[in-house]
Each structure stands twice: as C-alpha cells, then as structure tokens.
Amino acid sequence: MGILMKGIDVAAAMKEELIKEAGLLKEGGIIPCLAIIRVGSRKDDLSYERGAKKRMDMIGIECRVMELPEDISQKEFEEVFRKVNDDTSVHGILLFRPLLKHLDEEPVRRMIHPLKDVDCMSDVNLLKVFDGDGTGYAPCTAEAVMKMLKHYNIDLKGKNTTVVGRSMVVGKPLSMLLLKENATVTICHTKTENLAKICKNADVLVAAAGKAKMITADMVGDGAVVVDVGINVDEEGNLCGDVDFEGAEQKSSYISPVPKGVGSLTTSVLAEHVIRAAKELSQSSTDR
What we know:
Elements lengths: L2 E2 L2 H21 L5 E7 L3 H17 L2 E7 L5 H13 L5 E4 L10 H6 L11 H8 L9 H12 L8 E5 L6 H10 L3 E5 L6 H6 L3 E4 L17 E4 L3 E2 L5 E2 L4 H7 L2 E2 L10 H21 L2
Parallel strand pairs: 1-11, 2-3, 2-4, 5-6, 5-7, 7-8, 8-11
Antiparallel strand pairs: 9-10
Helix pairs in contact: 1-10, 2-10, 6-7, 6-10
C-alpha cells in the first residue's frame, strides 16, 4: 500500500518560512499584495478563491478581489486589468481562466508585468519555464507537484516519468520542470495509443488529463510513485481525481490523494510567488 503524499503536510512545512518572509517585507515598509481578478462567479473559481484568501491571510499577504460582471465588455475588462497591472501596491496578479467566450485573454497575457505574473500566464514566464530558467514563475499547480515530490524525497534523476495531460497549465510546463531535474519524461494524453502500457512502465506517473478515474490499477506499475492532479466529480457527486485511488494505492509506493493532495498545496506556492514578486519588484524600483 502506497504512502500518502498529502499537500497539507507540505504546505505546513512551508508556512513558517513564508510568514517570516512576509514579516520581513512589512518591516521594510512593503505589504505583499495579491490581486485576484474574477469574471462572474463559477463555483470552482469561488472555491479556489476562498482557499487562496485564507492562505494569504494566514501568511500575512494582502488579498484584493476584483469581481467583474459576466457581461463586461472586452474594453472594460482590459481597462480593469491595466489598472491593476499598473498599481505599484500590487505585487501579484491571479486571473481566473478560462474567461467567458466573449472575452479574449490574449491582450492581457501580453500586458501583464512578468514579475507580477505569479501563475505563469505570460509568454515571458512560459518561455523561461521551457528554457529551464528558474527566474520565471511556473504555474502554481505544476510547481506544487515538484514541491510535493521533493518533500517526500522522490529521486527523479533518470527515472521514467510519464505525464498524462498536455495542457499549458499543468502537463507541458510540469514536463519541463521534471526534465530540469533530469527525469526521463514521456508526455501522454487521452488519445495516446497503448496508454496503459506506457503508464505501467513509469517509475513516476502524473495524472493531469482532467478525466475522472481514467488511470486504473492495471495502468500502475508495482512500486510506482503516483501523483494525481485531477479535480473531478464522480457519478455519486463526490470529488475525485484522474486516478482510481482505491486500486492504484495497493500497487504504488507513494500516492497523492484527491482531495488533500496537490490541490491543497497550490495556494502555498501562490503565496511563495507573491512574496518573491514583492521582493523583486521592490528591488527593481530601487535600482532605477
């Protein structure tokens, strides 16, 4: 039976250092601040927002929420975003995506200050992640996976690592982060042929395809490390991941649950990014 990799335990290990760093910034007259921009009120956005606000408050980071109406025009949306982006008291910006169909995110992706882009929305930070440049901000969920693996002392060097999922939010950037740690990475998706065979050969298996319980026990190799990034609702209305946990747990050496797994850690990574942004932005202003 696999050892549970709980995001809450990793977040607890990060908490005191983050509180200390936020306190040092405040002593220097800098109040770290995250601005959340949300269009409408999707249930999953509101859930993450509550968790983010709670985490920021716990760390000592100011959190401002800009709730925009669903019928906001493209022009008005860009004006709000520009105002937040230009606000020197804001150090990090989190935009809930995907946007509603009538809104285009491309203009704000180009607009956002790279140092405020704490969840890797801009091409600047994406390029840095793909180039192995640690000065960029990786997407919080992708980095949360890496922090979890490090916390549980999972050695990635040379390991056959399969990532199921190819999104720019998790799958692709996570694969680059894994490569940086010298893992041997295979990227799969829901249309990959022989998916079960490829997954079973993995030493480390990351499920991030967004399909409930698609990774079944027969797709998990004996002793594999299994990281479940999926957040889904099953037929009974219960929260579940991309992995059929009950079966996979019996074959894995380590496994992250859903809930209380990777998702519990992302807001701590977000807080870490905001504090880092506050430091870098204050330094860049004094260097002028």
